[in-house]
Amino acid sequence: MIATPSRSPRVAVAQFHCAGSDVARNLETIGSLISQASSDGADLVVLHETATTGYFIADALDRLAETDDGPSATQIAEFARANAIHVAVGMAIRDGARFYDAQLLFAPDGTHLATYKKCHLFSSERQWYAQGEEAVVVETGIGRIGLSICYDLIFPEFIRKLADLGADLVINSTNWIGDDFQRQVWDWSGGTVTSLARTRALENGVWLAMANGIGPEQGFQSLGHSCVVAPSGKVLASVGEAQGFAAADLDYDSDELERWRAIATYRSDRRPQLY
């Protein structure tokens, strides 16, 4: 049981450009960002998808994927403990003979709280990873946290499931990427993915923190715009396109939030028998 959990945590999202498959260098950057977020007073920092290795690692999974208690996870757990902060991070992991695109969550004492395995695999990811089969909401010292990775955010039913399981806050470790065609012809941009985060928060009445990568990788550009969003869809903090972090204070029980939810009765107004 979590004793007297905080109902008003400060939540940070951090983003950086992965140094290819240079795990040691990426861990060094992750450690620095965790320290910066902690110094800013954050209770939780969220980092992006496959943050220890970079995204395009299909031909190197056997070498780069680790168990969720392996060297990289152990190092990040130590970062969490040394900075007394919750940490969520995306990693490629192995479990037996299978590989998973995963999100790990650590407590401020370094305890490994959860491993979420990505349930919705995008495009060629299906050739690399096995699918996760479980929605995960974790009781923590800063409320109930629903875990998700990148493409999961496209599926409203999945984020609704996390809300229905009692999530106060949904976190998303992502690596939204685009090439010239996607960006120039279809305006697939940081603004678009921010709007997606805003919509998922709004329609479910939950807080949402999305952490993305930045920079080029194999002809694609990571879009950045990591953000923290209120249950109204209001963007409380955003990093833009630079390396760094942004943080916002949440209040799960404020009078203003109760007033908003009295107006925005979206979930109770659903008529699923018609859908």
UniProtKB/TrEMBL annotation:
The keyword Hydrolase applies. It comes from the Bacteria. This is Carbon-nitrogen hydrolase family protein. The keyword Acetylation does not apply. Pfam families: CN_hydrolase. PANTHER family: DEAMINATED GLUTATHIONE AMIDASE (PTHR23088:SF27), NITRILASE-RELATED (PTHR23088). Keywords: Hydrolase. Coiled coil: none annotated. GO terms for molecular function: hydrolase activity. Residues 9-252 form the CN hydrolase domain. Belongs to the carbon-nitrogen hydrolase superfamily. NIT1/NIT2 family.
